[in-house]
Design a protein that fits this description.
- Two copies of one chain form a homodimer.
- Chain A is of the alpha/beta class.
- Chain A folds into two domains: 3-107 and 147-229, 3-Layer(aba) Sandwich (Rossmann fold), CATH 3.40.50; 237-321, Rossmann fold.
- In chain A, 39% of the residues lie in helices and 23% in strands.
- Chain A has nine helices and 14 strands.
- In chain A, a hairpin with a 6-residue loop joins strand 2 (63-65) and strand 3 (72-76).
- In chain A, helix 2 (31-47) packs parallel to helix 6.
- The interface between A and B is large, with 62 and 62 residues.
- Strand 10 (215-221) of chain A pairs antiparallel with strand 10 (215-221) of chain B, so a sheet runs across the interface.
Chain lengths: 321, 321
């Protein structure tokens, strides 16, 4: 192949970027244990249940450390509400769910609780029993029991990350465990992943000093991991990525470009201000607007969205049989 | 006064910087309600209890938004463990505590619980009652009841912030409510406050695009609010600020400089890696090393630290009587 061919160059650059990203990342803590847990989960859910589909839901934002002994970091805003809610609907649809979430963000079944449910929802009685304050009684009990049931049945595996390094290392590890699933694997990549980072070796070792004048920073682009995910890690899987923008015009253009460039099955386009009311599902066959049912106060946009995805994933699995 | 006088220039610049910081900040949400709550709290604890001392404990890190419709921000690492723990000891020493904390960080009485106590510590029984899993039984019950008691007795007021704008606006508002307390007021400023920020008016309105090349950012210095706190907002209060560094040599130099420059009563010097074992209390009379009691596994450094502070604050109150 001609080395000056545009695509060749692009792929070449991208491979080099990804290799150097992983080579220079600080090693993932507990990698062996995460690998073991993930493989046991895949084994249980794919070998014993031949038709069960498995989804990786990523959720919350990644941090980008600015110092090796990290005091400061850049963060991407994401409460993890979409990921946590979607995980619930995937479980309800019979999927086994790997929930890769940012430490401290929303958990499945807990989205309608206050920020600090322990102190805001619970009370200790004179007899030293714990009770739930109204109006949270049912919500709190359901949250606890649904979470425990999903985990103890072995259909929900929760893994957490904080930095961009941990997120991408986990993604690679989980994707490689899922590669044997073929088309039964679904990637639902709702995490808000940083586009920019400071390579570990060029990072300040100590805290950046504030003594004099403004701070100038140069951040490098994070290599486009979706390209490798699709091409090398999960060529047969159903892959869904997300775009969040504050400007609607930019949003649809970028979602369409991502669909093409990374060969996704769907790109979910979110506008920051309206993302809880509607999303646009961008596919090769056209765009589908998905809205929450506005006749029900407690309806969310994830319910119709996951229904649509489950149908499309089923169709894709059948067409590959 | 000669305009070229060094100190004059410095104060002039600092006043201008602070005025322009507040003028250009997005308005604080619920400012009127926060003011009302704070003033009621001061009234209750200072007028009805003439000798009660009141402390403002700030805790957790501030964020610096990089975009007006915020997707990305810079954050300062801080779990809020020190602030939350210190608040407990101040309550125990008879202080009324205003706890100004970063949303999502540690709360007083909850520091020995897992990250997600609701799901990790609680269970729903077959009879639909809530019980606590061992070994958390006593810890969880104590956390809930101690928190509720402090709040319902009116000795603990909790207020939260996320951005550097919200933090400094809250600080100004609370300090002005505390100004009538004179020497009975204590400021214990343990929050990790950003040194750099992006002024609101020069901030990108929409999400910064990642399409081409590296990202260059220029951050401005946050004006030194300690100077105004000491000089204008709380001239008679006992003021304690914190320094956290990863390099010990820089640490003591900077702590000493801060003591002088901002006329603090104490600066607590923390080294990132050893901060749970010991801190150095830098005062005009010399440095005091405070260590946790290593003969007790559950002993913390905050217990002797707060004991020392309470003594010093008592002495300072007496000397001003």
């Amino acid at each position: 192949m001609n080395a000056s061919n545009g695509l060749g160059d692009f792929e070449e650059t991208s491979n080099v970027g990804i290799k150097s990203f992983f080579d220079s990342s600080p090693p993932l803590k507990d990698a062996a244990e995460i690998k073991k847990k993930t493989e046991e989960f895949m084994q249980k859910n794919s070998f014993s249940e031949k038709t069960r589909r498995i989804v990786l839901v990523t959720s919350g934002g990644t941090t980008v450390p600015l110092e090796q002994r990290c005091v400061r970091y850049i963060d991407n805003f994401s409460s993890g509400h979409r990921g946590a809610t979607s995980a619930e609907y995937f479980l309800r649809a019979g999927y086994a769910v790997v929930f890769l979430y940012r430490e401290g963000t929303y958990q499945p079944f807990c989205r309608s609780l206050p920020n600090n449910p322990l102190l805001e929802c619970l009370e200790v009685t004179k007899e030293s029993n714990i009770t739930v304050r109204p109006p949270y009684d049912q919500t709190v009990k359901k949250a606890i029991s649904n979470s425990h049931v999903a985990i103890s049945c072995g259909t929900l595996l929760k893994l957490s990350f904080t930095t961009i390094f941990e997120y991408l290392q986990n993604l690679q590890l989980i994707a490689s465990s899922m590669s044997s699933l073929g088309s039964r694997a679904l990637f639902y990549l709702a995490a808000a992943v940083s586009d920019f980072y400071v390579p570990w070796e060029s990072m300040a070792v100590h805290k950046i000093q504030s003594s004099s004048g403004p701070l100038d920073m140069r951040l490098a682009q994070v290599p486009k991991m979706l390209l490798v995910l699709r091409r090398d890690w999960a060529p047969k899987a159903f892959c869904i990525s997300f775009k969040l923008e504050t400007d609607k015009e930019i949003l649809l253009k970028k979602a369409g470009a991502a669909l093409e460039k990374y060969n996704m099955n769907m790109v979910i386009a979110n506008e920051l201000l309206t993302r809880k009311e509607e999303v646009i599902v961008v596919t090769k066959a056209g765009n589908i607007v998905v809205q929450r049912d506005r006749t029900r106060a407690d309806a969310d946009v994830e319910e119709p969205l996951i229904n649509l995805i489950v149908d499309e994933h089923s169709a894709a699995c059948k067409s590959l049989e």
